[in-house]
Design brief:
Thrombin, subunit H; 12 strands; Cell shape-determining protein MreC; alpha+beta; MreC; 5 helices; six-stranded antiparallel β-barrel; 41% helix; transmembrane; six-stranded antiparallel beta barrel; Cell/Rod_MreC_2; 285 residues; single chain
Length: 285
Amino acid sequence: MRNLLEFLAKYNHWFVFVILEVIGLVLLFQYNNYQSSVWFSSANAVSGQCYKWSSEMASFFSLSKMNETLTQRNLYLEQQVRILSDTLAKTGRDSATISSNQLSELKQYRLIPAKVVSNTVNKIDNLMTIDKGSADGVHKDMGVACGNGIVGIVYIVSSHYSIVIPVLNSRSNIGCSIQGRGYFGVLHWTGGATDMAYVDDIPRHAHFKLYEKVVTSGYSSIFPPGVLVGTIKHVYNSTDGLSYRLKVQLATDFGNLRDVCVIDNTPMEERMQLLRTAQDSLTNR
C-alpha cells in the first residue's frame, strides 16, 4: 500500500492531466456539433475496420468447415454425373425410373469428413494418416476419397486416427472401369510420377478412346461405383498380349491433399457379404 501511495504521489500531475484531458474532450464533443460529427465519423470508420477484420478472421477459421462440406458435395455430384451419363447411354428403358432408383441408393452412403494429418508421396509404399477412427465410425477396408477423386483404403484403425493405404502404394489394388463403357480392370501404382497409375486387365475387345474417364467399378464393398479415378492418357498391350494396360492420369493431387471423406458403404458391404456366403455355400456342396 505504501508503494502504491508513493507511486500516486510521484506521478499525480500525470493523473490530473489525463483526467482534465478526458473532461475537456467530453465537453468538446458533447457541446460542439462539428467536433461531435467528426468524432462519430472517425469512430464509425475505426469500428467498421475492426468489424471487417473480425469478419475476415471468422471467415478464415471457417474455411476448414467449408472445405469439408465442399469435399462431400463434390463426391455426391460425381455420383450424380455418373448416373446421368449411364441413364443417357441406356436405351429402351424408363430413364426416369433408373435415375430415381440410383439417386435413392446414393443417400445410403454416409460420408465421414476427415483431415490428412500426415502423408508421404516419395516412397514405393506410401501411407497416410487421417484424424478419424473407430470412435467416428471408421473401420478397416473403408474407401477414402476427396473432392477430386479416390484416395485409398483404410488399413489400420485406432480410436481417433486411421492409417490409409493410398493409391500411391504398391500394395494398392482398386477395381475400376471405363466410364460409360462397362469394361473393368484393376488400378495399380508402380512408383515414379505421383499423378500417374495403371489399370490392368482391360479386355482386348473393349472399345474406348483416349481421355475418357476411369471410375471405380463398384464390384467390391469398398467404393461405390462412379467415384472418379482419372483420365486415360495412353494404351499399352499387356505382357501376355491378352489384354490392355491403361496409363491413367490420376484426378487426385496427392501432394496437396488436406480434406478427405471416408465412405461408409454399408449397403454394398452387406450385399457382398451375402454374395460371399452364397458362394461358400455352393462350394461346400
